[in-house]
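re: that chain from earlier
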Amino acid sequence: MDFGIGFISNNIMLPILDFFYGIVPSYGLAIVALTLVIRFALYPLSAGSIRSMRRMKVVQPVMQKRQQEIRDRYKDDPAKQQEEMGKVMKEFGNPLAGCLPLLFQMPILFALFATLRGSPFSDVPYSINLQILPKEQLEQIQPQAFTTPPQNIYVSEGVHAPVTALLPGGSKLAVGEKTKIDFQTVEGKSLQTLLDEYPETKLAPRFEVASGAERVKLNDDGTIEALQPGDVTLKSILPGLAADKGFLFIDKLGRVGAIDPDGVIHWDIVGMIVFFGLSLYVNQLLSGQGKSANANPQQETINKITPVLFSGMFFWFPLPAGVLMYMTIANVFQTAQTFVLSREALPEEIQKLVEAEEKANESKATVLPFEPGKTKKEPDAKATPKKGTEAKVKTSRVKAKESKVKESKPIDVKAEVVAEKPAPTTATDHSKHNSDHKSTVEVADSVDSVPSPELERSEKEA
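^ sequence. v structure.
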């Protein structure tokens, strides 16, 4: 019994799909509803992965610094180095912890992907490998019936059954022998009998020769005639019921490829591919990939071109339109989830670590870079000026004193000119003149003692 992706698809995805189609008979809306249900169910796992990645991005610089210090300190003691590394991992967390939720999601996402690639959204191919042998060689081989792995086929809206392709005579044919490809359910009921119960369903299989067309003759009803010995690969295709149905701007949910072999461009598929790439780019911006200060430039370039490469891949490896719609919706949901989680506050211990790192960076930023001519004693330069500077200061002081004395002398002269007639010189006059001269000198000295703006400016310039 299959307990892998096929089991999840048949027992989880298809019942949910049938439930929503029963509510609203639209396979496009059923795809949207199924995608949202699965994404909300996986929300805790994806949220844990996003939080872990965000946490590691914040602590990575400090973590790498400590790891390097441990390597340098205990380079001669591997046991101690491993012990200290374990402590660092315990403190900051394992960088691979964010991958664990992704691993739990992968089987479910693969099953959802496989569901949307199958019936009823796209055609279902069955591959059959034939071996044509000479008659005398085939007589020694016991013939055994050949069946392909079963695949779920929708025979009507909401009705599906596991169907296999069957070769009653086996996959080994003798030259000239004829056989026919039949389809039946795992219970042994033929597909034609099942289709007779739903006469409104038009489900006609198609047959193709993938390789070895010169060795067989294949008719439209699935009859095979062996012509010459060799290996042959046949492909029988059952069409999906919803493959030709549209949804919103999508013409056909089952259409594969943006460009037909005849050059016709399907703009609905091109639009979904472009939108898928844009959502990838926005998701990268929100998650902050490649924006770290110590990020590798080569890694930044890879992050920038990844959305282009990943979305452009669908032009060369096409997928059905329904699958592209699922991937676009899922990516938009992921982008919205990343935006919401990026607004959450960091854990308290991580926040303290971030604040300490920011303070350390700010303290480094306040230190000025080296400048030629600067020395450690440069702040004391004003207190101990150079010889040339002293001479300039003294000259400016002398000039300032002379200008002040000149300004003060006219006052004394004017005071002396007030006398009407010159009087004969006497001892009293001499003493009076000496006292006047003395007062004039004192006034000049007092003026010199007052600091002038010119003097202060010259000292500052020096």
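Residues 5-115+249-349 form one domain.
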